[in-house]
């Protein structure tokens, strides 16, 4: 059975240097061209495009196979793609000059390649060479640093409708040599284009990185640039077991970038979280550390019966107020400046939310909040923790384990925690029913229900 007229498998396998592969032969450009042509000819409903690993025919790459008929193409060049899509996918006629149908030769090549590959790998191993994957992890900071510096210098805005390195350097107050090198690296990373010494933004850069564009995310992304400085202190933070004070943060710009960064992630997740929790019987929501207010806004929009209170620190509340006003739900949302670790949490709430909060605090601080939240909930009320949840042995998922280090460098006692820990803390605090709701993306919900008589 084949749910599509054609299913195209395109090999994009990468191999160690010196070993032939489809990626070394330009499979990513072929893939891009395929996606473009399928869209252009409006064949999305007929053609399913899937990337795949090595099919053993690497010397002849880029290789692709069209199922269900099993038509093999080899040495595909981006300039061949429009012909393949039009002739084969639209008109049903394979492009014979690129088709490879010598099964015996293909089988022989695949066997030969396997032997060659194993020999190269054994030689690398014998020579004491480190696997490429480790090298890639070690150098992984390089592209990240290029983008963050470009955002800090606001290069994408300075590029405007197109400019030379000298012009851009002048606009951002940077040395022309340095600006030129960074601009070229951004072209290499696919974030800028260059023609006749004139740089221009790609559609994505123009959309997401240029100040003033509708979907501009620069402020929120600058939060990652701020995090970078904290991560640079990790060696010392590990030695000390807590964050190292650095001379950054706490300024109004820092706070604005931080809340924009939170909003970037929260605005799309919030409606999903509200849907997972439901609004039936929910009248009062307390949103502790509500940040941009995304979750309260989503609750308010989901039901006119819901009233929310957002408690956040005094520096953040004015920013929260702007987001809430912009969403047009100010009449349903009250704002309070305070400290969730000390201030009264009120009473009779149907839901108390801790979205991306618990990782900032120590186990003892979280247990304190949970105990006070339990008292502040109405009968059958729910405490909702949304966070990265670690496995019981804390070695994964990867994002949760890495985020724990983010809290080591950024807070005095925060960390990612496991479901076992959250469950124990909630039960100790008086919650009778504790369960997990898995969400799309890296963080999940742990919900504690309090069953108390009225
Ligand atoms: C990681 S952000 C999460 C924001 C929001 N809940 C979300 O998921 O988008 C943490 C928020 O908690 C606030 N916060 C930190 N410590 C606090 C405290 N002691 N009392 C109240 N709010 C606090 C921060 O200002 C920030 O808005
Ligand atoms: S790398 Fe593509 S077939 Fe081997």
Describe it.
This protein is of the alpha/beta class and 454 residues long. It is built from 17 helices and 15 strands. The strands form four sheets. It has a seven-stranded mixed β-sheet, sandwiched between helices. Strands 2-1-3-4 form a four-stranded mixed β-sheet, covered by helices on one side. Strand 5 and strand 6 form a beta hairpin. Helix 1 (27-40) crosses helix 2 and helix 7 (165-172) crosses helix 8. The radius of gyration is 27 Å and the shape is globular. The model has no long low-confidence stretch (mean pLDDT 96). FE2/S2 (inorganic) cluster is lined by residues 11, 13, 21-22, 54-58, 61, 63.
Mean pLDDT: 96
The coarse overall form would be globular
Biggest beta sheet attributes: 7 strands, mixed
Strand content: 15-25%
Write the layout of secondary structure elements.
Elements (H helix, E strand, L loop, with lengths): L5 E6 L15 H14 L6 E6 L11 E4 L3 E3 L7 H10 L12 H24 L5 H7 L2 H12 L2 H5 L5 H8 L3 H13 L3 E4 L2 E4 L1 H6 L9 H14 L2 H7 L11 H26 L6 E5 L5 H9 L4 E6 L4 H11 L5 E5 L11 E7 L7 H14 E11 L1 E2 L7 H13 L6 E2 H11 L3 E5 L6 E6 L5
Parallel strand pairs: 1-2, 7-8, 7-10, 8-9, 10-11, 12-13
Antiparallel strand pairs: 1-3, 3-4, 5-6, 11-15, 14-15
Helix pairs in contact: 1-2, 5-10, 7-8, 10-12, 12-13, 15-17
The site of FE2/S2 (inorganic) cluster has 11 residues, from loops.
């Amino acid at each position: 059975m084949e749910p599509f007229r054609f299913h195209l498998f395109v090999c994009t396998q990468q191999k160690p240097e010196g070993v032939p592969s489809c990626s070394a032969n330009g499979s990513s450009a072929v893939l891009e061209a395929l996606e473009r042509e399928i869209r252009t000819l409006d064949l999305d409903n007929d053609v399913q495009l899937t990337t795949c690993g090595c099919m053993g025919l690497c010397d002849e790459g880029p290789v692709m196979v069209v199922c269900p008929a099993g038509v093999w193409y080899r040495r595909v060049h981006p300039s061949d793609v429009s012909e393949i899509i039009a002739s084969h996918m639209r008109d049903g006629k394979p492009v014979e000059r690129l088709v490879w149908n010598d099964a015996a030769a293909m089988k022989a090549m695949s066997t030969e390649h396997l032997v060659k590959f194993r020999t190269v790998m054994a030689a690398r191993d014998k020579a004491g060479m480190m696997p490429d994957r480790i090298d890639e992890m070690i150098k992984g900071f390089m592209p990240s640093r290029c983008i963050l510096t470009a955002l800090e210098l606001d290069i994408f805005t300075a590029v405007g409708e197109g400019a030379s390195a000298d012009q851009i350097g002048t606009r951002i107050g940077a040395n022309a040599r340095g600006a030129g090198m960074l601009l070229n690296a951004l072209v290499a990373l696919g974030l800028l284009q260059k023609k006749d010494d004139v740089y221009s933004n790609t559609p994505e850069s123009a959309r997401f990185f240029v100040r003033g564009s509708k979907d501009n995310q620069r402020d929120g992304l600058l939060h990652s640039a701020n995090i970078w400085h904290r991560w640079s202190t990790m060696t010392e933070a590990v030695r000390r077991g807590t964050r190292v004070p650095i001379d950054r943060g706490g300024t109004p710009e820092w706070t604005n970038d931080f809340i924009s960064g939170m909003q970037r992630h929260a605005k799309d997740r919030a409606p999903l979280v509200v849907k997972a929790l439901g609004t039936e019987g929910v009248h009062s929501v307390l949103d502790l550390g509500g940040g941009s207010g995304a979750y309260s806004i989503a609750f308010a929009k989901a039901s006119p019966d819901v009233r929310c209170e957002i408690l956040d620190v005094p520096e953040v509340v004015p920013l929260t107020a702007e987001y809430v006003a912009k969403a047009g739900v100010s009449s349903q949302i009250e704002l309070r400046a305070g400290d969730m670790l000390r201030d009264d949490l009120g009473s009779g709430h149907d839901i108390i939310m801790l979205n991306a909060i618990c990782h900032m605090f120590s186990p003892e601080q979280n247990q304190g909040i949970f105990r006070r939240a339990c008292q502040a909930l109405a009968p059958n009320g729910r405490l909702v923790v949304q966070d990265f949840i670690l496995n019981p042995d804390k070695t994964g998922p990867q994002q949760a384990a890495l985020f724990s280090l983010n809290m080591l460098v950024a807070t005095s006692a925060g960390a990612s925690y496991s479901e076992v820990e959250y469950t124990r803390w909630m039960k100790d605090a008086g919650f009778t029913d504790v369960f997990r709701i898995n969400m799309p993306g890296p963080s999940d919900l742990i919900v504690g229900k309090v069953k108390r008589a009225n």
